[in-house]
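Milestone 3.1: sequence recovery, worked example.
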């Protein structure tokens, strides 16, 4: 028999969102899924992380080097995944607050095309590019640059 999904709990959206409810629902599901994947992955990798503690008999140096390399690789991967996890959490909070899909810098709506490929995007493409350029420039010149001060 077909059990109809109950339609209890009227969802009243107070704040008008730029994206349709369906789109946001879809993206929220993607974000939750991604959060689960990332959390599981981070946990697994943390467990897999080789024990670097000195436990009596160190292997030969090649082993040690390989182990260091693995640790480093896992470390970088973990860092990246943990970073993405934060972004995903942040996006989910924004959905709750009703300000999802708004660029955090210029406060314009982020195009849904961008949101669909990057649901946790914080900035519109324009601001992201500005930020990336600033970031790259900062790296190259190694001088602090506030990207808010960029001339319009
Ligand atoms: Zn923007």
């Amino acid at each position: 028999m077909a059990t109809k999904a109950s339609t209890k709990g009227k969802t009243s959206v107070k704040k008008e969102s730029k994206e349709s409810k369906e789109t946001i629902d879809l993206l929220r599901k993607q974000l939750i899924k991604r959060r689960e994947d990332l959390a599981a992955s981070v946990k697994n990798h943390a467990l897999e992380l080789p024990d670097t503690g000195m436990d009596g008999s160190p292997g030969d140096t090649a082993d040690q080097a390989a182990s260091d390399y693995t640790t480093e690789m896992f470390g970088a991967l973990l860092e990246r995944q943990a970073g993405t996890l934060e972004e995903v959490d942040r996006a989910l909070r924004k959905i709750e607050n009703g300000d999802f899909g708004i660029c955090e810098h210029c406060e314009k709506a982020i195009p849904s095309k961008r949101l669909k490929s990057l649901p946790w995007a914080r900035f519109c493409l324009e601001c992201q590019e500005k930020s990336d350029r600033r970031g790259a420039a900062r790296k190259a010149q190694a001088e602090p640059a506030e990207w808010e001060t960029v001339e319009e």
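The chain has one domain: 21-49+64-149. The chain is about 60% helix and 0% strand.
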